[in-house]
Amino acid sequence: MLFTVFQIYSANRILYVDQFYDILGNDEKENNLLDFTVKNGFDKIILYDLHKINRDYPLADLNTNDILARFIFKAKINYGLAGVGGSGESADFFIKAIHAYNMSRINPVERFDTYNLEYEYWKKSPSENGGYYCINYLKKTGQSCNRKNSFKFFINSLAVMKKLAKENSHKVTVEAYVGKYYKHEIKKIANYVDRLLIHVYVENPKHGFNFANKRLEYLSEVKNMPKTSIIYSSEILFMGGWLKYNSLKKGENIFIDSLKKNNKGLLRKIKFTDFTYYNYNYLAKSVKYYNNSQITDFDSKIDKNEVIITSEKP
Questions:
Q1: On the CB side of 5, how many CA atoms lie within 13 Å of its CA?
Q2: For residue 6, is pLDDT > 90?
């Protein structure tokens, strides 16, 4: 019964689209991306590289952002995607670019449906003196460079994003990618998001439960329970190799079976929705290899001396 409930929620998948700057505006590359999403069960995508696109095609300007509007329209109307998300790492970028883009487009089909925050406050070096977050965000706001202040920046960004989402005339949800969070942190994060994307970056999905269990336990204790998606990474360091020889569905089933076996109560407490994959370019290579190997295996099992009966009339 628990597995049936999860299957209902996990009918679709979310895909992070990297190198989107090199895809946007190229019909062949756009269509290859969207064909891949449909064929592999993705109904939502999250777009990276929006800072590069905003640099060359200012997203707040109706005269220059049509290139993105055409892509989002095609993704939803021609390919049937249920949602397109825009990813950024600060409230300022959402205000000036992603939300400004949404407010400029009259047709809701052309707008982002999700505001996705990617700011890895839990990583030590970016938030310390000399780190990326320290230089670009914390020092500029007069904050000392450490995890505590980096987390505050993360929360403040989510709070702004939630307010911006409410300004849209159509429903826009707020999501956050999270990694190694503490119990007190996830309680605060849950107040501002509609969905959490929790990374389970392992080489083999059989290790996924142990990797995520403590963090999912922390999540199960929050009052404002958001939807939850598990992120698998198709990078070479993680599941890129495994996915060359196994299907997406198999990897997902292994994680759920582990949960049922070791901590089935989590399936009752947490609002699991689907699996998210990072990222398009790595995953496309693994899936292509897997599909080709399946064809080769099938061909090798055919006895070429056998008479093949078909339904075609002579």
A1: 12
A2: no
Mean pLDDT of 215-239: 96
DSSP result, the chain: -HHHHHHHHTSSEEEEE-SGGGTTT-HHHHHHHHHHHHHTTEEEEEE--HHHHHHHS-TT-TTTTHHHHHHHHIIIIIS--SEEEEEESSHHHIIIIIHHHHHH-SSGGGS-SEEEE---TT-HHHHSTTSHHIIIIIGGGT--SSHHHHHHHHHHHHHHHHHHHHTSSS--EEEEEE-S--HHHHHHHTTT-SEEEEE---SSGGGHHHHHHHHHHHHHT-SS--EEEEEEE-STTTTTTGGGTS-HHHHHHHHHHHHHHHHTTHHHHSEEEEEEEE-HHHHHHHHHHHHHHHHHHHHHTS-TTSPPP-S---
| pLDDT tens per residue, range 169-213 | 999 999 999 999 999 999 999 999 999 999 999 999 999 999 999
The one-letter code for the residue type at 5 is V
Determine the Cα–Cα distance for residues 311 and 10; give it in Å rounded to an integer: 37
What tokens were used for 228?
A: 């939850």
* Distance between first and last Cα of the chain: 50
> HSE (CB half, 13 Å, CA atoms) of 271?
13
Closest CA to 83 of 91, 92, 94, 72: 72
Task: Judge contact between 53 and 20, C-beta under 8 A.
Answer: yes
What are φ and ψ of residue 286, in 5° steps? -65, -45
Cβ–Cβ < 8 Å for 59, 50: yes
Predicted TM-score (pTM) of this structure: 0.90
pLDDT at 312 over 90: no
Write the pLDDT tens digit of every residue in 73-96. 999 999 999 999 999 999 999 999
